Inverse folding.
């Protein structure tokens, strides 16, 4: 048994043992997390309580492929079980399948009819020496497994004890995969990454691998899981086509009523794996990742059409809600739909987390200090140097430290989002050095450090998304970081690299890279267009011009070859010299532009074609870009240059 299961089992057993007579213990957790097995085992631990045969109020059409304990089903079986339990005097009735309003209503009706109240009645002591006598039907404990809390269902009063079943850790899922015969480390890593802590998903993935589906085909693996999840969702809703529509919703991240349609929007919200988000409904992780992978694998053209439609829809939203707090949520949708490689893995991993994020207060000082030390130790930094740098930030703007906490209010991580102002400019100067005046003039926020529990990738992603939302709302983000993953991330996000610090500020053995990104005015729409890339593809004639610009730049130092360029007619009778002069001037003008995208595009063209210092791989490394990101931005730069061509 995993450690997570053991802890949860103990919590359920304690809730059953201490529950007042007649109380309902509600065991809550996502589909496939193992609620049913834990519920039955927990009651067995509470002596001398007896467990009445589990009742399934909403059995699935077929038995689960892994088998399991025999269960009786239906409302009449529940009525008999309640009567048997009342006669025993000290017993529990385990009820499964309470995953719809109808099932919850049936349960409440039967409890009411049998004189069970889901609130604690006054205990009636038994006469001395007569066990069981003197107890009312309310002496029986009802243990109910459900995917959503019973209190979220219509008609349920208070008085329940709710115990949440947590997903397993990645290490526990890896051990489960090993026990199920997945010995290869790569295949085991695929199981861990896609399972998101849900043992049912891990077991289904292992079976799929044993069937011969390659680990390099995540869509085919996910499809096996999706079939099992769909089957289990039938106990929640039998509406035709509803479960099948989950792939489309998963592919676009979040969908509002205008995008999904009123009827689908209303019905999808009934499913337990669909949750409300800031921009509409979303499929909860890790199911979202699996449904999207399967949808893209089965119907790639349909998948792409849905993404394109979502991009077109979301593209109209920033102007409609400019200045609204919801703008950060809309930007998050574009980050999800971005064509930039690496962003999805960093910001939207297949891991469900219950967290909250808020600015620090004086009461959080100890937690902030511990997290700063954890950050320093993780990176092998000089702790005293870190304290000397970060300490003044905390004194100048304690609200600039944003903490992420778990459901039990434990601090998991912190990100510095210092407001850039006169009171903070001095304390962040060591991280910006000669760029301080330039980068603090626009205000905004400064990010100088971030750390999160490495075993909680979902929490880290939530902290990063929060950081982007705050940064976009502020109008300007400045980042100074020594950590390579963050350097790659801000590069993928389209931040402009302004240079490095001369000093090794933290004792990391490397300087900090300084990046910045404006979001005010028309900078936000331009950034969104850049992020979504192929979603707004140039028309054929523009692509042809971009190809001719590339060829002309490649021939920039070869007059004979350049003389054959089809671009020459755009420059009249002035010939090759005019074309060459225009190319030089246009690239230099782009490099010196104030807009970060334009400046970076010009710098790429200048290094690649004008100065010719190194090949594409060298230039990508110099500009701290992955090869995929570099080529994407090179193509965009050529298109931008083509748009500047004179017309005749």
């Amino acid at each position: 048994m995993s450690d997570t299961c053991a802890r949860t089992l103990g919590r359920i057993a304690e809730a059953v043992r201490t529950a007042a007579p007649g109380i309902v213990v509600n065991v809550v957790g996502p589909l496939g997390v193992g609620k049913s097995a834990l519920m039955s085992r927990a009651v067995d631990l509470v002596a001398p309580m007896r467990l009445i045969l589990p009742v399934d109020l909403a059995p699935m059409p077929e038995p689960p492929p892994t088998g399991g304990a025999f269960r009786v089903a239906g409302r009449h079986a529940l009525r008999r079980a309640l009567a048997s339990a009342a006669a025993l005097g000290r017993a529990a009735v385990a009820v499964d399948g309470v995953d719809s309003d109808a099932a919850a209503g049936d349960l409440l009706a039967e409890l009411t009819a049998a004189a069970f109240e889901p609130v604690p009645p006054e205990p009636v002591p038994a006469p001395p020496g007569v066990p069981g006598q003197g107890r009312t039907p309310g002496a029986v404990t009802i243990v109910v497994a459900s995917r959503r809390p019973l209190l979220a269902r219509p008609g349920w009063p208070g008085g329940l004890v709710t115990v949440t079943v947590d997903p397993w850790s990645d290490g526990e899922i890896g051990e489960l995969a090993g026990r199920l015969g997945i010995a290869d480390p790569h295949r085991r890593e695929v199981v861990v990454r896609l399972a998101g802590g849900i043992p049912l998903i891990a077991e289904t993935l292992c079976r799929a691998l044993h069937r011969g589906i390659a680990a390099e085909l995540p869509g085919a693996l996910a499809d096996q899981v999706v079939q099992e999840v769909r089957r289990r969702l039938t106990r929640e809703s039998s509406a035709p086509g509803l479960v099948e529509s989950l792939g489309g919703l998963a592919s676009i991240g979040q969908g509002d009523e205008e995008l999904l349609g009123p009827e689908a929007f209303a019905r999808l919200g009934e499913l337990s794996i669909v949750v409300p988000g800031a921009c509409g409904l979303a499929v909860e992780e890790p199911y979202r990742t699996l449904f999207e992978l399967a949808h893209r694998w089965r119907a790639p053209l349909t998948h792409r059409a849905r993404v394109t439609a979502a991009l077109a829809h979301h593209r109209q939203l920033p102007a409609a809600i400019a200045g609204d707090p919801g703008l950060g949520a809309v930007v998050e949708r574009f980050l999800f739909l971005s064509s930039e490689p690496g962003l999805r893995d960093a910001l939207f991993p297949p891991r469900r987390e219950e967290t909250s994020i808020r600015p620090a207060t004086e009461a959080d000082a100890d937690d902030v200090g511990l997290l700063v030390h954890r950050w320093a130790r993780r990176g092998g930094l000089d702790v005293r140097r870190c304290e000397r740098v970060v300490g003044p930030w905390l004194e100048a703007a304690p609200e600039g430290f944003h903490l992420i906490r778990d459901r039990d209010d434990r601090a998991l991580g912190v990100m510095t989002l210092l407001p850039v102002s006169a009171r903070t400019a001095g304390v962040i100067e060591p991280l910006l050095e000669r760029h301080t005046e330039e980068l603090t003039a626009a205000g905004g926020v400064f990010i100088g450090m971030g750390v999160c529990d490495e075993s909680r990738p979902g929490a880290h992603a939530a902290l990063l998304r929060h950081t982007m939302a705050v940064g976009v709302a502020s109008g300007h983000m400045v980042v100074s970081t020594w950590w390579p993953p963050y350097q790659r991330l801000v590069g993928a996000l389209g931040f402009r690299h302004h240079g490095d610090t001369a000093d090794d500020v933290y004792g990391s053995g490397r300087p900090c890279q300084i990046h910045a990104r404006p979001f005010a005015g028309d900078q936000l729409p331009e950034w969104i267009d850049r992020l979504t890339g192929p979603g707004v593809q140039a028309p054929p004639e523009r692509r042809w011009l971009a190809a001719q610009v590339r060829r002309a730049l490649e021939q920039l130092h070869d007059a004979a070859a350049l003389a054959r360029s089809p671009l020459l007619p755009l420059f009249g009778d002035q010939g090759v010299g005019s074309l060459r002069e225009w190319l030089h001037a246009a690239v230099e003008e782009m490099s010196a532009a104030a807009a970060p995208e334009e400046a970076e595009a010009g710098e790429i063209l200048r290094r690649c074609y004008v100065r010719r210092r190194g090949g594409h791989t060298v230039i990508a490394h110099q500009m701290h870009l992955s090869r995929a990101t570099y080529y994407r931005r090179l193509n965009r730069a050529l298109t931008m240059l083509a748009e500047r061509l004179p017309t005749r």
Observations:
- The radius of gyration is 30 Å.
